[in-house]
TrEMBL record:
Compartments where located: Cell membrane
Species for this entry: Thalassospira tepidiphila MCCC 1A03514
Listed transmembrane segments: 12-31, 37-55, 67-91, 111-137, 144-161
Lineage: Bacteria, Pseudomonadati, Pseudomonadota, Alphaproteobacteria, Rhodospirillales
UniProt keyword list: Cell membrane, Cell shape, Membrane, Transmembrane, Transmembrane helix
Any one GO cellular component localisation term in the record: plasma membrane
InterPro entries hit by this protein: Cell_shape_determining_MreD
Name of the protein in its database record: Cell shape-determining protein MreD
Topological category with respect to the lipid bilayer: Multi-pass membrane protein
Pfam families: MreD
Similarity section: Belongs to the MreD family.
Membrane among keywords: yes
BP-aspect Gene Ontology terms: regulation of cell shape
């Protein structure tokens, strides 16, 4: 017996959930949060989600999807086009290839791996943005962004893990 239309739509929607979650985190990054001393820095929420899904479900968040989400991030945040795309594709391909390493390891290993991946990712983003804009962007903001990104990764990963266990069990 063939599955019904609603069942197929449900499976498609569940399969698109990783991309939707990255998009939702992109939108959260756009919210104007006025935190003293952090006005120019924000956590790289999309980077966290791309890393998480690339390690845990690389079949549902491909390099093409990461590229498109990166373009969207550049457009929404006013960054030079292609910078976030390159960074997210590099993170996706590198993380997806190391998924087996993180499998059945404690969360602290995944957190450490993310912290190591986030450093060059944010540095590449800073360097390329500075080069394409033609002016050196504040490096302090990049470092604050890194600290926030690494510190908040467990919270974002926990939320994504709960969603994965709930929504993607049968996908």
């Amino acid at each position: 017996m063939k599955p019904g239309v609603w069942h197929r739509l449900d499976i498609i929607a569940r399969g698109l959930f990783p991309a939707f979650s990255v998009f939702a985190l992109l939108l959260i990054n756009l919210l104007p949060l006025s935190v003293p001393l952090l006005s120019t820095a924000s956590p790289a929420l999309a980077l966290m989600a791309v890393f998480y899904w690339s390690v845990n479900r690389p079949d549902l968040l491909t390099a093409v999807t990461a590229f498109l989400l990166g373009l969207l991030q550049d457009l929404l945040m006013g960054l030079p086009l292609g910078v976030s795309s390159l960074v997210l594709v590099l993170v996706q391909t590198g993380s997806a290839s190391q998924g087996r390493f993180f499998h059945n390891k404690p969360f602290s290993v995944m957190w450490w791996g993310f912290a190591l991946v986030a450093i060059p990712a944010l540095l590449v983003q800073w360097l390329l943005s500075s080069a394409l804009i033609g002016a050196l962007l504040p490096f302090k903001a990049t470092m604050i962004s890194y600290v926030l990104t690494a510190a908040l990764f467990p919270i974002v990963a926990w939320v994504l893990a709960r969603a994965q266990n709930t929504l993607l069990r049968y996908v």
